[in-house]
Amino acid sequence: MSKAIIQIDGNNFYASCEQMIDPSIKGKGLVILSNNDGCIIARSSEARKMGIPMGTPYFKLKKKLKQLNIAVRSSNYELYGDISNRLMQLLRKNCEELEIYSIDEAFGTMKRPKDKCLYQWSSNLRSLVYQNIGIPISIGIGETKVLSKISNHIAKKIERNSGIFDISIIENKDYYLNQIEVDKVWGVGKKMSIWLKGRGINNARELRDMPSNQINRKYGVVGIRIQNELKGKLCIPVKEISSAKKEICVSRSFAYPIDTLEELNQAICKYVLIASAKLRRNNQLLSAIKIFTTTNINSKDFYKSEATIQLNIPTSNSKVILEQSLKLTRKIFKPYRKLIKAGVILHKLQGNQYKQIPIFDERSIQEKFRHKTLDNIIDNINKRNKSDTLSWGSSTIKKEWEPRREKLSYLKTTKIERIPSVFAN
DNA sequence: TCTGGGGTCCTAGGACCC
DNA sequence: TCTGGGGTCCTAGGACCC
Distance in angstroms, CA of A247 to C1' of B8? Predict the structure, then answer.
């Protein structure tokens, strides 16, 4: 038996992070809201048991949450990011290879011991993480990523598994695969599951055993890959080194609709500065910028607009990116539209080691270096202090339409002044 | 009144080339 | 009326993920 693929994730990760820093909500009903306090994006297991559905708009459940005495938090990505880093460091030490897949999920590999059983190892890892990070995790093991995801799902579902399941070493594999609905299989989304169900394929076992030419005709390599992974053939390898980002997107909804060019400009400026700082952090340059905005998708006169510009010389310079972005903003703006969201996407990214400097224009070289220094100074100051300590004048925006975060928890792990005090008597 | 944000991968089809 | 064949590259958009 070759290497085992291990899938590890934090249980109800956002909720667990909040409960970890605030013991008063431990073991209680808790929901986490999306940006702008829009909808429910995470629940504690207690809230789930009380029947609070995922993804529902907050305003629809506000009353019910109060009646049930369920705590509410705005999402606090600085906190979750910090806990995630600690978790991943610990996992990296304990797996042979580790691919960080998302803020709360990782894939690892492990060689199986002589008796093939990784339960002891998994159980030790779970305790270690709980002791050191304070977050419960689940561990799924299989021959491929798709199977390890299924294992993880079973680990969470069946209590006696205590958060660990290994589908490769059990005898009645089909018994379990028969119980996994086809839309729960990793890679099968809404569209594909409708198509599959229309053909009588309702669970993971049936998907594995259906004729591959059928799925190939409809979904090509994407479909075949999922099917092969279900059969135990590794098609989606564990990537230890995360590949360079191909695009960077920063977008937000506004607390209230805006309808002037001035406001849109301010928002775009702010997002562009966040995105270009990210770009420089990744040591990358961009060659294309897209700006977009939309009104409420649920309204009758839904309006959305976007514009893209290609740059001849790749850059990571805030001033250049800002100038181009504001030109695009003028293009996409239309008066009397109640805009509720806007954003920027940086496209065609490349590593900055390939930066091309214009060779004939002496002045532009000097300018470039000056801008580079300015960007560096701003980035460094913002890194040491609050992320927007120093910014560009054009990006100062009115507080009242900044996204709502009314139920934000304190940053007890990343702000020195917020570290909890302990008094011993 | 109020419905998130940030990604990746793949494919079809257009533009262009010889 | 009739209008090649084969290839590459790029982009927009769909589908999916957390």
Answer: 10
Contact between the CB of A67 and strand B at under 7 Å: no
A248-401 maps to CATH 3.30.1660.10: no
A62-67 mean pLDDT:
95
Lowest mean pLDDT among A131-135, A200-204, A353-357, A412-416: A353-357
How far does the CA of A220 sit from the C1' of C1, in Å? Answer: 40
Give the pLDDT confidence score for residue A347 in this predicted structure: 92
DSSP state letter for A423: -
Nearest nucleotide to A55 (CA to C1') is: B3
Residue A73, helix vs strand vs coil = strand
What is the CA A213 to C1' C7 distance in angstroms?
27
How far apart are alpha carbons A269 and A273 in whole angstroms?
A: 6
Better pLDDT: A51 or A391? A51
H-helix or E-strand spanning residue A269: helix A261-281
CATH of A171-239, one of 1.10.150.20, 3.30.2130.30, 3.40.50.80, 3.90.1170.40: 1.10.150.20
The neighbouring-strand residues paired with A110 are A4
**Residue A251: CB less than 7 A from any atom in strand B:** yes
Q: Which nucleotides of C are covered by protein (CB under 7 A)?
A: 11-12, 14-18
The pLDDT value recorded for residue A366 is 64
For the ranges A98-112, A279-293, A368-382, the lowest mean pLDDT is seen at A368-382
Helical H segments across A95-211, by residue range = 119-132, 145-157, 173-177, 190-198, 204-209
> What residue has its CA nearest to the C1' of B6?
A249
